Amino acid sequence: MSQQLSNVSNEIARAKWSECLNLIKENINAQKYSAWFEPIVPLRIEGHTLTIQVPSQFWYEWLEEHYYTILRNTIQKVIGRDGKLQYSIKVESKADTYAQPPASVNLPQRSMPASQPHHNSLNDLPRYQANQIQNPFVIPGIQKNRLNSNLNSNYVFDRFIEGDCNRLARSAGIAIAENPGKNSFNPFFIYGGTGLGKTHLTQSIGNKIRNDFGNEKNILYITSDDFTNEFVRAIRNNRASEFSMMYRNIDVLIIDDIQFFSGKEKTQEEFFHIFNALHQEGKQIILTSDRAPKDIPDIEERLISRFNWGLTADVQMPDYETRYAILERKAIDNGIEFEPQILEFIATNFKSSVRDLEGAIIKLLAASSLQHIDHIDLPMAKRILKDMIKETTKQVTVENIQALVCDFFGIDTNKVREKTRKQEIVEARQIAMYLSKKLTKSSLKSIGLQFGGRDHSTVIHAISTVEDRIQTSQRHAQIVKELTQKIELASL
Ligand SMILES: Nc1ncnc2c1ncn2[C@@H]1O[C@H](COP(=O)(O)OP(=O)(O)OP(=O)(O)O)[C@@H](O)[C@H]1O
Fold this sequence. Notes:
Residues 369-492 are annotated as: Domain IV, binds dsDNA. Residues 1-96 are annotated as: Domain I, interacts with DnaA modulators. The protein is an alpha/beta fold. Helices cover 51% and strands 10% of the residues. It is built from 19 helices and 9 strands.
């Protein structure tokens, strides 16, 4: 009977946790979701307490530090206001991890009060949810200290690394925060590809204003989708005028991803009136979009023209140096130090979004925690991140090797293919031949051909000469090691 009860509890726990996962998945990015949530096992549910098993103590601490708000909101949604989460830590038997059922260490049950959220250090800003905002309709004319601004205190200018890619947007953001509404950057329109820091920047502006002006300014950060949902709900409840009134009382309005207003005529109209009212009263408006105003489809012309009234600034993918600096900063923020080669490797291979750079750091952290690894070296990092960079993996070719080796020795690439017997060129040619054999699948014959039509025996001679030198000369060993790393980095 008690076995039956426990099976039922397992079943319910699984179903509830699966509901939680669906909500969590919508609120955080896929990498973080798969790194931190997929490995969790729901164990049981007793009353309002759901127990989940996490792989390690570190895991538990990480979830509590970074995902507390999301977990709290989710549990309350799925289990109800009294919902609680209890962690159980998996203890692996050293002798045979799989033969025995995992033991559990129950940590003190953490209740989930509905008080002020505590924020996470990475980007999982709990998405604005209508029912989280203290009801703006209770009192016509908003009470300044009652509005939940939806600001994540981790998104601050200090943590936003400046580069050519975002200099204008960042500097303008700081200027706006110093003097909200009373500057010529109104509205401030930031646009750029996904994961390039638009939310981070707008939130930094909000946080700085909150910090410098306190309760004097009503600040609201909201995504365009949530704005639309809230508006629809207000219409449904015959509260459209209260909705408008609440927005007219905001001093700094930040709307993220405005491109999603596209095709929503009623929302656009409402926003048009709010925009005019705020602008006239010298209130600050900050908007973001994934593209420039003129490129957003299905948006009224009168809105597009207003988007261009103030300052429009784009953010782009950071260059290598900025990517490196961002990685260094993210590692510090997460209390971990990586060898410079690892940061170089990530900065070289993740070129499409800052979110992906962050994802790489998280994946390394998660893997080291799961596998209880104290120190991650470059080969290990490469293995762990392999899946994330698969698509961009390039084949190493003899030509690439020639180019990198010649660049290293400061000689023209064609020289290694010519007949010259100059000592420095012979040395570069032999090393390039050696590396071509080691790092490509090319045959001796094909390598010889690509070095100016040389015979395969010349390639064999070059390889054994380099092997001898590596054994006898530290300088050579070092050169070959450095070149190997460079070629591997460039090719992955
Ligand atoms: N210059 C930067 N310095 C430090 N962190 C950055 C920088 N740019 C982006 N990030 C980080 O990258 C992550 C993604 O940034 P953010 O969410 O602001 O992007 P976004 O442009 O708003 O993306 P989306 O359009 O998909 O919403 C965040 O964690 C943010 O902190």
